[in-house]
Records
---
Amino acid sequence: MPSKRSQYIDEDFSDQVAKAVPEQIEAAAKGKLDEAVDALFLLEKQARRAGDMQSCCKLARTIVKICVDCQSWKQLNDCLVLLSKRRGQGKTVIQEAVQEAMSYLDQLEDMEVVLELIATLRLITEGKIFVEGERAELTKRLAAIQESRGNVEEAAKTLQEVQVETLSKMDMADKLDYILEQTRLCLDCNDFIRARILSKKINLKVINKPEHAQQKLRFHTLMVRYYSHEQEYLEIARAYQAMYNTECVQEDADRWPEVLKLLCIFTVLAPHSTEQSDLLHRTHELKNLADLTTYRQLLKSFITVELMNWNTINALRDEVAQLPAFADATVAQQLWDSLRLRVVEHNITVISKYYSRIEFSRLCGLLELPAADVEKRLSDLVSTGTVYARIDRPKGIVSFLKPQEPSDLLNDWGRNVSSLLDVVEKTCHLIQRENMVHLPAVEAARKRRA
């Protein structure tokens, strides 16, 4: 019975290939490289016409190997191009030749030879779906070489040539690593717009899976870099929250305290909003925060509806300065100024809840700020809709009482009247019930006296 392989080929060249390969390798080693390559190409042509792709693959790998062994780099590139352009060449043959050539990249010491070989292989794999994975790997290698030479922008541009999300044969973990590398290079060359576009290619549902924990940490670390440039402190806090919720971080006793500290700091640095308040309360309820007394007290100060003393917060500066985000002096000063601003905003919000009207001089005294700074901060909060306030400059009075619209006033009056009528009706019902309870006793007493 014929074998399964023989059913698909016209002639089996495996025996001829097995005999010719050692002979031609030996001939090439003796300096007859051209004759050996020509003989192997002739045999490859016969096997290809007969449909023996397995023999063609072996011959293609042998041609690449003897060129590398003889260090004939120009002939290697020519042979690779010739193999890929042969009429009726099988996909597996091209793929095997490319993979064989790629296996020698790490062994080559001459960087110019490596670059020429990568350029040839990228030319061969261009537009071929069956070698899309190999092309992506070659592009990544080329970008790494360019980055090592200091051409970060060129490396970022090279790596962006690959639309890795469309590659069907690449594993999800490899896709995530590829996109993260593209994002990192964009951030390194300060192309923040393109970095944001690339980061949106990552599906958060996929990256939150346990098997992609390392990619998740890399992703949020890169997002912290991006949001730091944009000064979006709430998004930075969310990134640290996602990192803290990762299992491998919580199991690392040396890592989770640092991440939790940064989460606390950037949560209070974020401007006041509903989302920021929710994140603030959620972070304050974390059990591990009990071990970080200083940061727990900091969050509690922003949650409690009481005035905060800036000198108390400023005393934490030396401890907070040890965090990585405060390593750069300029950035640290900018973050500390933002924290000062958040304390002032918190105090103004607290004052607006306790006072309906207050003298402007008294407000400046409570905030411990000059009049110009108080007016600016108050105006900013009014502009964002955080508080309602009106300043009467001639009288020097700040009013936090929001005037009601006529329709709202009528609605309140109607609700008050309805509430009053409900109380009157309930009172009448209680009086009637008491009368019914005590009426038999009253009647009995009258009859006894009678």
---
Amino acid sequence: MTVHTLCVLLVSVAALASAAPAVSVSWGSDPTCEEVLSLEGKRAMLGDGFIDYYMSESGHFKEAIEYNDKGICSSQSRSVNMPVGTFPPYIREIVCSTEARDCMPNKVCKKVTAFVKVLKRTCVPNFLTSPLSYYEKWEVKAQEIGAGCECAEY
């Protein structure tokens, strides 16, 4: 590798590192980074995976969930506060009754699971800065939720 090629490579790496916003941290503290990605950017990353029916940025959901329309297996909706660094911050799911009297003999009310896409944020160290700094990285992950209830065998 020539000196010219090495210089071009170092300049390219430094440019990439400077493109990501970073926040410095001191030794002994948890790595944190400023949240830079906009709400629109997060929604764009999820694409069709953002489902208003089950997800909310504010904790308020637009519609009530129409579930268990046959009335055999009792259930109710529950709002779940997701951990810091997760988008959306609130997910709604269905919680099933544990009372066996709702179902036929030898059957119980069981959760029907579904998976929704969420974004998880991590702070990645940027070793090209001094002092050491961190930048945010968002990844799409699958989150299991209760989507409904049904009577099923034990």
---
Amino acid sequence: MNKQLELICMSRHLIAWVIQTKVVRVQHHYSRKLDTKRKQLQGVQQLFQTFASQIEKNLDVEDDEDRGTYRSSRDSKRDRKSKGHHSHSGLQKGAPGTVSLPDI
């Protein structure tokens, strides 16, 4: 009877160890998968930020060329704010240099 209890105890420990190793393996698998997705998302966010900054630079250069002089984007943004334009950057409907799509 004592030998039987010892085997039951050992089998419980073995089963617990097997379950724990499976859990750890699955956690590592999904952690790597999640990290890969995070890095991919950060890359896409960086692409959008770069794209947006390039558009802003191009718009600032076009605004400066329309005025006939070239100034830094900081100066042109300050001029826009002082002239009563909205403080947020981006395109606005009906603003000079924009084209709106026709209503359908």
---
Amino acid sequence: ELYCSEHTKKKKKKKKKNARNNFKGGTGCQLGTACWELYCSEHGLHPHDGTICSHDSICGRLESFFAEEKSGKWLPRALFADVQETTMDDIKTGECRELFHGEQLIGLNEDEASTFARGYRTSPLADACLEQLRKITEATSCFEGFAIFHSVGGGTGSGLASVLLDRISSAYPDKIKLSLPVYPSPRTASSLVEPYNALLASHHLLEHTDLALPFETDALHDIVWRHLNVEMPTNDDVGRVFTRTVSNLTSSVRFGGGLNRSLAELQGGLVQFPRIHFLLASCPPVAALQCSTAEITKSAFESRNLAVKSYPGYGRYSACCVMYRGDVATADAGAALDSVVGKHVQFVEWEPRDIKYGVNPCGAVESSRCASMIGNNTCIAELFGRVHHKSSLMYSKRAFVHWYIREGMEEGEFTEAFENLADLEKDYEEMGACYHEDDY
């Protein structure tokens, strides 16, 4: 799925900036549909057709992610793509059946064989997607960048998303590319080659994205089990956690606020080095809870609430910010953050030890107040260490490599991906080990 976010300055009239949302593969399309349903509910729109529920219910800046049509309907700036036509049929017959136009749903009756190679090398969807992106781009005054929702374990989400990122980087080099990849879990694996797909997709994410917010299926399942007491989470349960997190992280763009009002501001505040752009995010509670500001702040930094199975205590933050929503006083937020610095949050020595925060008065759907943390922490290297380890075990026996070779790939591409991920792990290790000269 692709979407465009659009924001305007109040003081001077400037060209509107848009961020386009792309949803690739079955998982990406399912999560994307759930996201737009939640966006519509939060902005006072009917999820099934994008019309306004009532003028009193309109909330936030609708033009940020939606485009108004002459009929009064608000159309999401999004593009869905999958090789399986059934995925598009589910959207066309679901609750959002009239929310999107037909040209926003691109599907084929084809099988990607669950491999990165076929999705990247032979998929005919890439040209169709790029042509539709060109039309959406030309219809906007000034867009800011792209957001890609995809699963890196499948063939479409890894291969097709990677080739589109490659081409988008060439066609729009000055626009921000944000990826929200979902990393696979052995407990829910549908294919034996998921580690290879995740490895190769991560290699391309390193080269062709400016920001990445990884989600790990294991972490999302644990959060569902803990908060909702569901032993066997369904896709809807996992999607509920994912959408609440994305909603919070984009709340400043959609409703205004003093922090991260655009993708450029998010990148500028959290990414100090181009390669180290994989960010750690926390998932807010999915159940309706009434907690104090101090409690939601502490919860945002707990490892059990992170979107990736990592322990921040083993790493250091180079940058960090917290987005509050709902009934939160600025003074209470500042005091709560002061209490976690040093105790729950350790910074690299060369960066100021402060946490930026913003308060958005528009609350979430299920709670009066909540908070989400997003930070650049060296502990996220654990995720790539797991991907590297699982895929290297298979590659040492050359297991399933022939599936990729027969689609036109070379073994050298595997070697390059392994080296790139190993270098990334070293980059994070070096970043956490840096100190001021005065400390020696």
